[in-house]
């Protein structure tokens, strides 16, 4: 057993390209519609009429148990409404965007839980002035109604070395308190017992965030500005130049565990967690408490013992809580060995033959041609694809060039085609890699060292083309690689002459006038596609290289 166990929560926040754009109906109604949408999408939730309060739909199951209530400003979804459910929160109150909820709604939520038969209500509140005031006022009012109410303040932010009088903020660690307190309440613990246990746990929780971009409240400008390439380490800590992820994580951990900081989380010094004598018991990675469209990540660490882990692993019906493994992360074997037998050909057993020199020349010419056309193919692909057609073909060319340096060319053409099929399958990637590998694999069985005349190659090309059509779903005329050359080429393969290549080139050029019916381009409006298909151009270039080498042999 390591010196201590740790639970790690990585809260990932994503960003849109333009912070001012929001997919909402109106600024005034966006919060109400978001809350209503959450409830209507989840059968275990209900909405308290007249308030932005999300309740468990089975309030009758709270009878005799402690109810949990949390909340805060909207814009941090899935917090807090997503954590309402058996084993977590009983209710959540939403304020306006980044604004504390009003006391009247908080009180209405407390009374709803109390009237359902709850023995008491625990308020889990993040350490912000507005939240403390409004939840505190509602708590006092609820006590006047005879409700047993207590409040736990979550303040686990590790950003500031010397926190102000306002104290440390409550961040994503709040979600962990929801879970632990919810499990305790589900088991029937008393209000005092729950408060005592989570208060102790809070001493071992720390959070630090990094933002790569600002966010903007609906109808407003971005909340702050970051120069290009900068990131903000903890709100108010100042910006740093953006670096590799490993450096960012190390910087966050070093700051969070710096003993000179009053906000630090005590852990042993060292590089990363596994080198600090700490056992990582659980890991959560996802979006748990966001800030609208702000890009960034927060890291939450929680010291854990077996009791803490038991509560953490307890079941909950809250819709936003992930389905996590209960296996300890540290020390777990996570690599599975492949099967003992391999389907890879024994390339070191190949022997050269009469055709080996010319096949080497063909491959060298193909690779050189594809590398020369890399940017041209990328440019064509940007019009109707991902803009990487040239890159994927260049990657295949480089892999083949590397293979040529260390291997002999087998005398059997079919064996060479099998090798090329494996190389493009493993290294080329994308749909192109799969299509080329299909073609080469199907063609390989039709040409041998003793049977490699024009008829055999025509049969091989036909078999490869049919395999691409069978599994790729494309036919001639669909503006894909099938139409893009191969159907043109195999029909008159017998005469490998420049006139045949001219037909192939025309076939590629004609794709500019076809409507895409398969492949990536089929998702693009036809009027936006005015250039030849990049896959067609690539195959035309490959066949041209083949013809040039063979012509030179005459």
From TrEMBL:
Catalysed reactions, semicolon-separated: FAD = riboflavin cyclic-4',5'-phosphate + AMP + H(+); D-glyceraldehyde + ATP = D-glyceraldehyde 3-phosphate + ADP + H(+); dihydroxyacetone + ATP = dihydroxyacetone phosphate + ADP + H(+)
Keywords for this protein: ATP-binding, Cobalt, Kinase, Nucleotide-binding, Transferase
Enzyme Commission no: 2.7.1.28, 2.7.1.29, 4.6.1.15
Cleavable signal peptide: none
Cofactor: Co(2+)
Residue ranges occupied by any DhaL domain in the UniProt entry: 357-548
InterPro entries linked: DhaK_dom, DhaL_dom, DhaL_dom_sf, Dihydroxyacetone_Kinase
A Pfam cross-reference name: Dak2
Record carries keyword Nucleotide-binding: yes
Molecular function (Gene Ontology), one example: ATP binding
Highest taxon of source: Eukaryota
GO BP, sorted A to Z: glycerol catabolic process
Alphabetical list of SUPFAM superfamilies matching this protein: DAK1/DegV-like (SSF82549), DhaL-like (SSF101473)
Gene Ontology CC: cytosol
Cited function: Catalyzes both the phosphorylation of dihydroxyacetone and of glyceraldehyde, and the splitting of ribonucleoside diphosphate-X compounds among which FAD is the best substrate. Represses IFIH1-mediated cellular antiviral response.
Subunit structure and binding partners: Homodimer. Interacts with IFIH1 (via the CARD domains), the interaction is inhibited by viral infection.
PANTHER family xref list: TRIOKINASE/FMN CYCLASE (PTHR28629), TRIOKINASE_FMN CYCLASE (PTHR28629:SF4)
Protein name: Triokinase/FMN cyclase
Name of the encoding gene: TKFC
């Amino acid at each position: 057993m390591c010196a201590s166990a740790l639970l790690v929560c990585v809260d990932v926040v994503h960003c849109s390209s333009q912070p001012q754009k929001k997919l909402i109906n109106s600024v005034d109604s966006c919060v109400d519609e978001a809350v209503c949408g959450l409830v209507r999408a989840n059968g275990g939730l209900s909405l308290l009429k007249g308030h932005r309060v999300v309740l468990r739909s089975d309030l009758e199951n709270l009878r005799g148990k402690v109810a949990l209530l949390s909340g805060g400003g909207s814009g941090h979804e899935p917090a807090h409404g997503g954590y309402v459910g058996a084993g977590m929160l009983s209710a959540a109150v939403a304020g306006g965007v980044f604004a504390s909820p009003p006391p009247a709604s908080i009180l209405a939520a407390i009374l709803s839980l109390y009237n359902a038969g709850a023995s008491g209500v625990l308020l889990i509140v993040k350490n912000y002035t507005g939240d403390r005031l409004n939840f505190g006022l509602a708590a006092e009012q609820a006590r006047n109604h005879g409700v047993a109410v207590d409040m736990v303040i979550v303040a686990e932010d590790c950003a500031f070395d010397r926190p102000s009088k306002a104290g440390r903020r409550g961040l994503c660690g709040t979600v962990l308190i929801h879970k632990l307190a919810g499990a305790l309440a589900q088991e029937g613990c008393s209000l005092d017992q729950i408060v005592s246990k989570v208060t102790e746990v809070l001493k071992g929780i720390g959070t630090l965030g990094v933002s790569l971009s600002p966010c903007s409240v609906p109808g407003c400008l971005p909340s702050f500005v970051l120069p290009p390439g900068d990131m903000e380490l903890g709100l108010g800590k100042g910006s740093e130049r953006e670096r590799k992820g490993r450096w960012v994580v190390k910087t966050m951990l070093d700051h969070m565990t710096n003993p000179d900081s009053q906000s630090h989380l005590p852990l042993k010094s060292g590089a990363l967690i596994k080198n600090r004598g700490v056992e990582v018991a659980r890991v959560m990675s996802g979006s748990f408490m966001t800030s609208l469209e702000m890009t960034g990540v927060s890291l939450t660490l929680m010291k854990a013992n077996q009791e803490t882990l038991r509560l953490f692993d307890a079941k909950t019906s809250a819709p936003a809580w992930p389905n996590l493994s209960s296996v300890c992360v540290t020390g777990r074997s996570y690599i599975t060995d492949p099967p003992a037998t391999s389907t890879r050909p024994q390339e070191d057993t190949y022997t050269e033959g009469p055709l080996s020199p010319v096949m080497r020349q063909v491959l060298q010419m193909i690779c050189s041609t594809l590398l020369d056309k890399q940017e041209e193919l990328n440019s064509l692909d940007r019009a109707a694809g991902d803009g990487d057609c040239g890159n994927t073909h260049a990657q295949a060319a480089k892999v083949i060039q590397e293979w040529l340096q260390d291997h002999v060319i087998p005398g059997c053409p079919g064996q060479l085609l099998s090798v090329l099929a494996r190389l493009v399958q493993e290294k080329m990637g994308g749909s192109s890699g799969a299509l080329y590998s299909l073609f080469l694999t199907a063609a390989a069985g039709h040409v041998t060292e003793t049977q490699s005349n024009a008829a055999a190659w025509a049969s091989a090309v036909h078999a490869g083309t049919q395999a691409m059509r069978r599994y790729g779903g494309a036919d001639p005329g669909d503006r894909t690689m099938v139409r893009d050359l191969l159907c043109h080429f195999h029909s008159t393969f017998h005469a490998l002459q420049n006139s045949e290549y001219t037909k192939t080139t025309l076939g590629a050029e004609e794709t500019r006038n076809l409507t895409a019916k398969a492949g990536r381009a089929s998702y693009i409006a036809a009027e936006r596609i005015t250039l030849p298909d990049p896959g067609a151009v690539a195959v035309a270039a490959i066949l041209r290289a083949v013809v040039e080498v063979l012509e030179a042999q005459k």
